[in-house]
Amino acid sequence: MITCVVRYTIDPEKITAFERFGKRWMELVQARGGTHHGYFLPAEGASDEALALFSFPSLAAYEEYRHRFGRDPEFIAADRIRDDSGCVLRYERTFMRPLLPGDLAAADTASASGTAAGEPEPLL
Questions:
Q1: What's the CA gap between 62 and 33, in Å, rounded?
Q2: What's one Pfam family the UniProt record gives for this protein (predicted)?
């Protein structure tokens, strides 16, 4: 699994437009094989930073999704919300590999058997 973390610098005066933009992208990611973990909007402190996290089963699956940018009318319309409103001033993407609570049980089992998580058991 690969998770894309998008860090946004937003215009705090245009938070409503950013929320519309975020809701639309959550729908598109879910409809195209990804899992959207949500947008995280300013609450206290810095008022111009927001985050989005979404995952795809593999980098190849993410690349298939990205191939739609600039081509798929729904993707273009979603980006138009951002572009027309000016709600996003800047953004950057980082790709991460999540360690999730369910992964802990697999790691404990592998540790007890002397193998790394995800590695096959040795043949005896």
A1: 9
A2: NIPSNAP
How much is the pTM?
0.77
Nearest Cα neighbor of 4 from 40, 53, 43, 45 is 53
Asked whether the beta carbons of 115 and 122 are under 8 A apart, the reply is: yes
What domains can you pick out in the chain, each with its CATH number? 2-113 (3.30.70.100)
- Chain position carrying tokens 């610098």: 9
Q: How far is the CA of 27 from the CAs of 31, 32, 74, 101, 118, in angstroms? A: 6, 9, 10, 25, 31
Alpha-carbon distance values, 52 to 7, 27, 39, 106, 108 (Å): 7, 13, 4, 27, 30
DSSP-assigned letters across all residues of 84-111: HHT-EEEEEEEEE----HHHHHHHHHHH
